[in-house]
Amino acid sequence: MDAITMDNSPIPDEAARWDALRRRDAAADGRFVYAVRSTGVYCRPSCAARPARPENVVFYATNAEAERAGFRPCKRCRPDGPSQADRRAEAVARACRLIDQTEETPPLDDLAAAAGLSPHHFHRVFKQATGVTPRAYAEARRAARVAGTLREAASVTEAIYDAGYGSAGRFYETAGARLGMTPGAYRRGGAGEAIRFAVGACALGSILVAATDRGVCAILLGDDPDALVRDLQDRFPHAELTGGDPAFDATVAQVVGFVEAPGTGLSLPLDIGGTAFQQRVWQALRAIPAGRTASYAEIARAIGDPAAVRAVARACGANPLAVAIPCHRVVRSDGGLSGYRWGVERKRDLLDRERNADGKGAPQ
């Protein structure tokens, strides 16, 4: 997914406004409007109308200011209505609901029709909003249904067919990536799965790092090392947990170094489980550049489900990979630091480290 620029703050600088207007920058929509004296209308910065003469242009911070000055909204870009980003998010959300409500993946043409877009345009908008293609999203949703019923179904095969798969083979092709382990092991609470772990210390307190053969599956922070181990045991109650060996110490050292300087990036492979929805949220979190923040509402819009603000918050709380999946970069709509699974003070510390690091850092 492309890096997400989560900034809805006003643009007071006139030079920056002119630059956004010349580029018809959709990212500036909602941050100011411009009015044209010769036509009596005001527009979004991204409006496709023919550029007005500079001497006829007046900038306003809000729609209300422009209307109090006697200007009316442009009928082309409709600055008084939902932004293009919001309209696209709602279109993607409609398609996602259709996928969620059907067992078989609807054809692309049907999804595009539900979104009110052409198939080609819909495919591009959907991938831009969610980070995956419509087909990949549908596969992830069906895999999540399997995960939700594996421990209750009479057999793995029954859970697979109940989720809408036409054959067990299609599910097994990607089961490891979706569940973090084989379906049978998932059903048995991780039985037969080998997980190495080690507990160490970092600037934020105690840290537990755990990994399967596929990659790091948990990075947990806290004050009590024993509590971190119990947390890992609760996640994988029947897995084979073994203490780290000297070779694993190098992995732990890399993770600790990343926690100390989160803007530097982590090159280790990750073994990310979670539901399809959680994966979409976590992917959006990893697209936020180091040193920047986003609100829960902005993440919900970024994944194409603007009404799912509370679900986004729950997905952040369920994140098992501290810092690697940077849920510390999510804040309240007013910019305040909301609850953080590993403590608000750690959240503040991580953000300060990123903002004060040399350079601006790269998206994780």
Brief characterization of the structure:
43% of the residues lie in helices and 13% in strands.
Write the layout of secondary structure elements.
Elements: H1 14-23, E1 33-36, E2 41-43, E3 57-60, H2 63-68, E4 72-73, H3 84-101, H4 108-115, H5 119-130, H6 134-149, H7 156-162, H8 168-172, H9 175-179, H10 183-187, E5 194-202, E6 205-212, E7 215-222, H11 225-235, E8 240-243, H12 246-260, H13 276-286, E9 294-295, H14 296-302, H15 309-317, E10 330-331, H16 344-356
Parallel strand pairs: 2-4, 5-8, 9-10
Antiparallel strand pairs: 1-2, 1-3, 5-6, 6-7
Helix pairs in contact: 3-4, 4-5, 6-7, 14-15
Any descriptors?
alpha/beta, 16 helices, four-stranded mixed sheet, globular, single chain, disordered C terminus, 364 residues, 10 strands, 43% helix
Q: Quaternary status of these chains?
A: single chain
Q: How does the major sheet shape up?
A: 4 strands, mixed
Which stretches are low in confidence, meaning pLDDT under 50 for 5 or more residues running? 1-7, 148-189, 358-364
Quote the beta fraction.
Answer: 5-15%
Cα(first) to Cα(last) distance is: 11 Å
How many separate helices?
16
Total strand segments: 10
Report the helical percentage: 40-55%
| Global shape | globular
Q: Give average pLDDT, whole number.
A: 78
Order of helices and strands: HEEEHEHHHHHHHHEEEHEHHEHHEH
Structural class: alpha/beta
Q: Give the spatial strand order of the biggest sheet.
A: 3-1-2-4
Radius of gyration: 24 Å
Can you put this structure into words, describing what you see?
By secondary structure, this protein is α/β, with parallel strands linked by helices. The protein is about 45% helix and about 15% strand. It is built from 16 helices and 10 strands. It has helices at about 15-25, 65-70, 85-100, 110-115, 120-130, 135-150, 155-160, 170, 175-180, 185, 225-235, 245-260, 275-285, 295-300, 310-315, 345-355, and strands at about 35, 40-45, 55-60, 70-75, 195-200, 205-210, 215-220, 240-245, 295, 330. The strands form 3 sheets. The chain has a 4-stranded mixed sheet. Strand 1 (about 35) and strand 2 (about 40-45) form a beta hairpin. Helix 3 (about 85-100) packs across helix 4 (about 110-115) and helix 6 crosses helix 7. The longest helix is centred in the N-terminal third of the chain and has 18 residues, at about 85-100. The chain is globular, with a radius of gyration of 24 Å. It starts with 13 loop residues before the first helix and ends in an 8-residue tail after the last helix. Residues about 1-5, about 150-190 and about 360-364 have low confidence and may be disordered.
